[in-house]
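In response to a reviewer's request, we include the raw inputs and outputs for one of the modeled complexes. The three entities were modeled together in a single run.
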Amino acid sequence: MPEIRVVNFSKHFGKVRAVDNVSFDVKDGEFVALLGPSGCGKTTTLLTLAGIYKPTSGEIYFDDQLMNNVPPKYRNISMVFQNYALYPHMTVFENIAFPLKAKKMSKEEIEKKVLEVTKKLMIDKLLDRKPMQISGGQQQRVALARALVKEPAVLLFDEPLSNLDAKLRMMMRAEIKKLQSDLGITSVYVTHDQAEAMTMASRIAVFSMGKLVQYGTPDEIYNEPKNMFVAAFIGNPPMNFMENFKVQSKDGELFATRGDIMVKLPPKAKEVKFEKTEGLVLGFRPEHCKIAKKEVENSIPANVYVLEPLGRDLIVNLKVKGVGGESELIKIFAEPGMNFEIEEKVYIIPDPEKLHLFDPETEETIL
Amino acid sequence: MAELRLNFFQRNSSKISQAVMIIILVLITSPILLGYAWLILRSFSVDMVHGFIPTKLTLKNWRFLWQEMKGYPNIWRTFLNTFWIALWVMILEALITSMGGYALSRYDFPGRTSMLRFILVLHAFPSISLMVAIYYVLKVIGLLDNLWGIILLKASLEIPWGTWVMKGFYDGIPWELEWAGLVDGYGRFEVWRKIVIPLVKPGIAVTAIFAFLSGWSEFVFINTFIFSQNAWTLSKYVKGIIGDFRFADYGLLTAVGLFYVIPTIVFFFFVNKYMIKLTIGGVKG
Amino acid sequence: MLVWSPAGRRGFILRGDKMKFFSGKLKSWLFLSPMLILVTIFFAIPVVLTVILAFTDMDYRFIWNFVGLMNFRDMSTDFLIPKVLLNTLIYTFSTLTLFNVGMALLISLLTTSISDRIGVIFRSLWMLPRLTPSVVYGLLWLWIFDPTKYGLMNNLFALLGLPPQDWLHTHPMMIIVFANGFIGASMGMLIFTAAIKAIPEDYFRAALIDGASWFMIVRKITLPLIKWQILFVTAYQTLSLLASFEYILIITDGGPVYRTEVWALYTYHTAFSSFRFGYGAALSTILVGIGVLSAFIYLKLFGFQALVQKPRIEVD
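The model returned the following structure tokens for the whole complex.
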């Protein structure tokens, strides 16, 4: 299986820079997710890996082979599409056999391979049906079978689960991950669903507006977001942001302060060289806080606004008084067993180890 | 991964196939290209070598514009007749089809479905096979050898098509806009006039232009139902010139022909982009 | 004034419904009336009249004289009819297969396979003949197949060292097939192109990635997916071609010696050159019959259900 290298890759459509100077690599047998909102350039990148688009500039390598001008046919790749792209006029069998027919394989061989792959995916009973006559989940499996039957070196996925209902999506998520690790096929997976990327991929490339913002393991992306975009895109509900903080030192410790709010920063903050110490954005995740009913040190006073019970969890929406009288909305996962009343005064205690500071102008992470 | 060795043709397969396709397209389109090139070039030149390479430029071929051709009516009178027909076919068709299309798109009335089917049938019906009977009808209503006969006939034959096209444009307008207008207290007629009509202006424009060009180009009906020279249109004029001068004076032929085709060329670029929309229901031919 | 009472209310609703029904009907008919009047005069009446005239021997004196089935008996003994039938068959079949469907498919498949900016140019060029006045368009073909050394074909022949040909005498049928075909191809082209463009892009991408060649994609994916459009164009254009004669009238006028005289043109000549309106109407009746019949067949075939959906406003 090849290793994929994308070097300084840009793709322009007329004046639109769909992808702008992106570099990353995918190791042999690795599962990488390209994550981002729609229109961020992730699908364009995928289609360029497939050979449907050609790079405007930059290079695509499979191992050491430059692939820029290699037609899709010679790339030994397969792709699973968002709408599956199953040919409606062909049966399931004919659909799966299509790539093999293009290779001019013998009838017996085609039949053998199709049967093999459909058994593995448990769709061998559907071979005579047309795509319209089977369920969405089954169509998804047929699309997977068509991709796997030619035993590709690289597997490309273009949001393959986004048309399934939530339950089926969870199931297929696990199944695709298992399949990929069993077969060890180098895979690139495009999605806009951060949960999908986090659970399936070994590394995630976060795209925004044609640029690669951060490339790293799910852990890195979650714990050390490069900027506010990544911080907000990963996690559900997203990271909370509070504006206009100052960094102050007191008794040899660093604190982020705003008015009478004062939160302690982690010890590693001392190693940071602050270019500015005022007007910073404080960020912390809903799952990295506690809520106290009585005032404690280093906490943020707030009022309960709305409660969102999720069964197992409870998300508490809180209003914190902002600078100009406007208030900021903060979401926190409450500890089990706690009860709240609307307008009740509480205190947010963020975990100092998991606090972030951002520069509001560049949106880059400071801490 | 085994090293890929692609030959020149494999590596450039998409470029090569594109080039081949364009060459094929140029070849099959060449009669059209050459025909129009010849029409334009020949009308301004004295003679040509190899069929369509002009030798010397001249305006003599255009003499029919300022001097009368023997045995032919005045060109400007003929031009006005043609314009008159085209204009009225356009006005009638724009008016009638924008009313009919609206009724068919937006009103539910008994017989609507049969009416739609009837129009589709008419639309596909080879109306040209009715000429014998139409001759008789025109004679009875006294519009034989009369431009108004041609105008009404032409407009009628185009109306099923135009109504269908306009219905398509009306169908494309969201119902919510009309609902909003009605909720705001306007009547159906006012909603049509004030909200809907401005939105289907492109449709009206396209239908009108097609009607104009179709009236402008009409030949068979003029040839059959018009006898007096002072009611001639350009099609009859050009046909006459072709008959009389075909082997004698291609310069004159092409100049007359080009003069006649000018409106087509002018509107061509405008209507071309609407073509697809108009054909979904189908076009005669 | 409205006073609520079970009986009164029902009465009100009934009256209201009736009024609504009536005024809605009235308004829609008002909108439709100009169309209906013209369609009646120039479509409905002529259809009936054609059939009636077919049973008369009306000539230039316009005397109604019913002769029963005489015209149809004449038809069976008319020595030109077999010739005309054969011409019609050859003309319709070759124009349809070579151009109206064949060329149309070729152009739409090719222009959708290259960059759309260039594809549009070619498709536009193919629209030009349809919009050109028929006499000028006919002139172009007269030039292309001109018997003297001025014609395009003879110039090409001269370049190859071949003597000029009198195309209109040697290949008249070919010329009218070409002339009609270059116009007829555009309708199919537009419909096929729209159909091909409506096929999801991912089907083609998937096929490309799976290694299919252009021909395989066309054969296995594109053509099967637009087969209804192909059927529609075939049905529609057969009918149009059967009735069409304008370009033949301009270019060969049926000649030389009836070699391009097709049914529709023969009808025209019978009525307007020989002034045998009765016989002409009888010949037309055959066409009208075919027209009505096939129109209904393809209404059944294609349904057009989506096109006749119910309106969603019930206010008048």
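As requested, we also summarize the result in words. Residues 75-106 of chain B form the longest helix (32 residues). The two ends of chain B are 56 Å apart (CA to CA).
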